[in-house]
Amino acid sequence: MMSEQHSATLLMSCPDQKGLVAAIANFLMTYNANILHADQHQDAGENLFLMRVEWDLDGFTLPMESFAAAFQPIADEHRMDWNVSLSSRKPRMAIFVSKYEHCLVDLLHRWRIGELGCDIPLVISNHEDCRRLVEFNGIPFHVVPVTRDNKAEAEAEQFRLLEEAGIDFVVLARYMQVLSADFVRRYPNRVINIHHSFLPAFDGAKPYHRAHARGVKLIGATSHYVTQDLDEGPIIEQEVARISHRDAVDALIEKGRDLEKVVLSRAVRWHVDNRVLSYCNKTVVFD
Amino acid sequence: MMSEQHSATLLMSCPDQKGLVAAIANFLMTYNANILHADQHQDAGENLFLMRVEWDLDGFTLPMESFAAAFQPIADEHRMDWNVSLSSRKPRMAIFVSKYEHCLVDLLHRWRIGELGCDIPLVISNHEDCRRLVEFNGIPFHVVPVTRDNKAEAEAEQFRLLEEAGIDFVVLARYMQVLSADFVRRYPNRVINIHHSFLPAFDGAKPYHRAHARGVKLIGATSHYVTQDLDEGPIIEQEVARISHRDAVDALIEKGRDLEKVVLSRAVRWHVDNRVLSYCNKTVVFD
Amino acid sequence: MMSEQHSATLLMSCPDQKGLVAAIANFLMTYNANILHADQHQDAGENLFLMRVEWDLDGFTLPMESFAAAFQPIADEHRMDWNVSLSSRKPRMAIFVSKYEHCLVDLLHRWRIGELGCDIPLVISNHEDCRRLVEFNGIPFHVVPVTRDNKAEAEAEQFRLLEEAGIDFVVLARYMQVLSADFVRRYPNRVINIHHSFLPAFDGAKPYHRAHARGVKLIGATSHYVTQDLDEGPIIEQEVARISHRDAVDALIEKGRDLEKVVLSRAVRWHVDNRVLSYCNKTVVFD
Amino acid sequence: MMSEQHSATLLMSCPDQKGLVAAIANFLMTYNANILHADQHQDAGENLFLMRVEWDLDGFTLPMESFAAAFQPIADEHRMDWNVSLSSRKPRMAIFVSKYEHCLVDLLHRWRIGELGCDIPLVISNHEDCRRLVEFNGIPFHVVPVTRDNKAEAEAEQFRLLEEAGIDFVVLARYMQVLSADFVRRYPNRVINIHHSFLPAFDGAKPYHRAHARGVKLIGATSHYVTQDLDEGPIIEQEVARISHRDAVDALIEKGRDLEKVVLSRAVRWHVDNRVLSYCNKTVVFD
User: Any idea which residues are catalytic in this one (chains A, B, C, D) (predicted)?
Assistant: First the structure.
């Protein structure tokens, strides 16, 4: 649920040590914060502490423009990676799509009824097919054709559109092109993909066909941050559905669509709500 | 997982207000606590704050025998209900069973391989059937027959056995007798029952027969704390399984057994690990 | 998956007796049928035999206009209730909706991409809200306002629209009005509703609020044929989702939307594919 | 459910063609069979027809010792692979186990209460650990130590024990040794293994450790027939459970135990009930 009230959310990670919860709680208390949610995680193997804390800005006596200056000494002392986001500033999401529209329809509907607390300044596609649907939702639709030969130019054009629109993160809603390492590097942990299998099973092409050939009894879908290694980025969410010998490949594709929609939309939601921290090629999804 | 290390766990609830996390974190920091896990919950509707915090006793400078005296001023200031438990002191569980042995078998096996961090000083039954199984596990087995006429005497005998064995909580592993209000009052939030339906559907007798008659497509099981109102206590855990028109009542009973085992054992596990707080006839199960 | 080929589907039920499978298989063989799917069910308690058989019309030597005359003697001999449907004749579905659009969006999208093998000649609502969405999909949208006082007239108008459009069955996609017994009687087993709880738990009003108050650990949704008894008709499909103490009522409503969409669309799909037989206030959903 | 009545079950597969259902139904009708269940499957890609049919032997006028002679002409005509089994003749199962006892405990309990309609003439292990448990259940327990150097002798001894006991099929209940190709060849589709991952993900060693390292959000278990290719045999059943970043490897192992028990016991049950047909390295599990 989107908080009605204005709130701030701090995401941080640092080497594990005593007193971290108290240090952050005290800092916030000094300025009269009302903590709405707090969740933390220790990874003993990596000796890492990770935390998410959200507090009400109503009554918070530290102006947010001074937050960084006030907090940095504590962050330095504990060697924290951190960022803070404000509920009043919606993140700006771009959607990339090709021809399959089910994930796009799903995301746009969730956005329209307020499930996703982000702005969608544009949708980019390598095909015309989804224009009518996108424009019905009042969102600008840009076609950037991609061929074998124009990949670099196409990405340059995509990047220009993203920059111009002030995009924070990109969602690949069954976008059937592989992004270059260069593109991915510009958006670290900020490109979310949906892969139509239960990773690491059936990474790469035609996962439903291969699932059918292998005779699995469940199919899956996986949302993950895109890294330079195809289908190997940090997993955000996964889900499966039961199939049987009666289900031909077409039935897997159809049942899979429902998985893809749910798994991608959860990842987008959690990312928008600043619930996801990535480390060691894994994610923590805070409650 | 049972912590290898010695730890203490504080469970508390109080009216919600600013500064609670900081107050507790600071108290623990004063004595050099290493917090292992912390989880909190606010119920806005009830204006209630609930928290579970577990810390390592290695290096903790406050002797646990002095904990209450040291903590009580903070508890008083914030009107906390609280209790603290030590991993070094295993809770003592009694199991009540009748003739169906599947939940008993499951609990005893989990206990034997270390999944349940409790002692089991005795099993009580109104029938002889499970004696061999219980004694195979090295646990004393007591038969207390229950008839229409001897209910009060039977409960007196059960209570005597529980007292003598220093029992902390009771698990009804498909025990087919209803406990008296008097008995239940003696163990508030300390009697766990498994009901073989997805409550509140099909409370009372013969839930699988009624589920079959209604034509539901999923069956369920529910573990809950026993209160004086039959099948209406705070729910700890629920799970469901898919059925079809092919499943006659016998098949529901059989599929239900697997649900009952899993749902009861999770409740016992969470109770043993001090993860469950009950309020307003609901439970919070802390992570 | 819609069969590409033209096929016929027979749904039948009759008192159980020997030789039913052979009788039907032989009848179809006489006319050189290629059976694509066959599934049967015996309800021993009710002494009932139910069967669904689908065969390819390519090479079938009995013209379908003569089917009834040819088959009736066998049906009479075994006292069968039966009907046959042709894949070439798509059933005509009307959707009733109020203001919540999630089920409507979902059904329209599935229909657009070919998941639902039906026609949708019209959508009827008691509010204007969904007009733009429906018309975007090229479907006529009719507003029939319903007040306390005009219920009979409103239903008369709805019925006129349905008759005029040659509607076979009606889907209530979160339509917030109770249909009269008279209306329901006109469409026996041909009005499909989605109820936002795991029936029989929380039938009637505000199920998510009541689920929250009861502290259940799973929420559900149920699709069923509408009968004169509110929320008591034959259940077609149910599904549940896990919730926790963190989920306020708003979160239940939101998670519930995903259940409602899936559970309603499955029921519609199975109904369209002639997979559902209703008896004794239950359903058989054939594979 | 085990049928109380005496029944026979025919499992068959053959090239798909018209009239197969009628041919079998007529054959059975000729001898006055009362068909209890029938289920069939067509694999269009492989042009294969597979069927399972179970009929009541009460009133069946063909003595079962004459079945093969009577049925073979039909089988020849349609080039059927087929076998028939009698409910009065329980299949004989051997269990192989090492030290982990959870699957063994589960199978033995299900067997004791009648869920599994088989005999268990013996349990074989490479360790002494499970002796007491097995003998508590009244089953002979044989230790056949396996070392690097004695593998061939050990298998010879195992094979001798299996032959002597008239074993029909073998269940590897977390047996930590790889069987030789020679051993496997002797029991085609008659050795059932449980692998503790969602195959094909994490085949081979230490799947829980690798699942943890990859950061998956669900773990799984897979039961399959053993072939000469490790973890690549026909999959019978799979199931998954949700995990989170809070679950260390130990927690995965623990949650996995519940999956392994359920997934293995379903496979054993279906095999015992003659529900599983294997083809093209896949299985059909008939309803």
Answer: 231
Question: How close does chain B come to C49, measured CA to CA in Å?
Answer: 12
- At residue C1, does pLDDT exceed 80? no
Interface-testing mutation among C30, C35, C51, with chain D (most D C-beta atoms within 10 A): C35
Instruction: Please give the Cα distance from A238 to A199 (Å, whole number).
Output: 8
Residue B95 contacts by C-beta under 8 Å, 6 or more apart in sequence?
B104, B107, B120, B123, B124, B170, B171, B173
pLDDT tens digit string along C111-134? 999 999 999 999 999 999 999 999
Q: Could you say which of D231, D247, D258, D273 is catalytic?
A: D231
Q: What is the pLDDT confidence band of residue D287, given thresholds at 50, 70 and 90?
A: confident
- CB-based contacts of A78: which residues, under 8 Å, 6+ apart? A14, A15, A17, A20, A23
CA distance B137 to B135: 5
**Distance separating alpha carbons of residues C110 and C266, to the nearest angstrom:** 11
Q: How far apart are CA D90 and CA D273, in angstroms?
A: 10
**Rounded-to-integer distance, Cα B24 and Cα B40, Å:** 12
Average pLDDT rounded to a whole number, residues D93-112: 97
For chain D, list the domains and their CATH numbers: 7-86 (3.30.70.260), 92-285 (3.40.50.170)
Chains that touch A (3 or more CB pairs under 8 A): B, C, D
What value does the mean pLDDT take over residues C236-255? 97
Quote the tokens at residue C68.
């009834």
Q: How far apart are CA A251 and CA A247, in angstroms?
A: 5
How much is the mean pLDDT over chain C?
A: 95
Tell me which residue has tokens 């349940």: B116
A190, two tokens: 């900020």
Residues on chain C touching B218 (C-beta within 8 angstroms): 198, 220, 238-240
Write down the pLDDT at residue D19.
Answer: 87
Strands (E), B136-183: 141-143, 169-172
- pLDDT confidence of residue D121: 98
Q: C34 vs D18: CB contact, 8 Å cut-off?
A: yes
What token pair was written down for C102? Answer: 């999630």
Measured distance between the N- and C-terminal CA atoms of chain A, rounded to whole angstroms? 12
| D54 within 8 A of D9, measured Cβ to Cβ | yes
| Cα C190 from Cα C40, distance rounded (Å) | 22
* Distance (Å, whole) CA A110 – CA A130: 17
CA distance readout (Å), A144 to A138, A153, A183, A226, C111: 19, 10, 15, 20, 29
pLDDT, residue C2, reads 43
Using an 8 Å CB-CB cutoff, list chain B residues near A39: 39
Residue B3 pLDDT: 42
Question: Closest Cα partner for D68 from D54, D51, D80, D50?
Answer: D80
- A41 with D218: Cβ contact below 8 A: no
Task: Give ipTM to 2 decimals.
Answer: 0.94
What are the residues of chain C with a beta carbon less than 8 Å away from any beta carbon of chain A? 1, 101-102, 105, 109, 113, 115, 136, 244, 246, 248, 250-251, 254, 258, 262, 287
Strands B81-86 and B141-143: unpaired
In the predicted model, what is the mean pLDDT of residues D188-203? 97
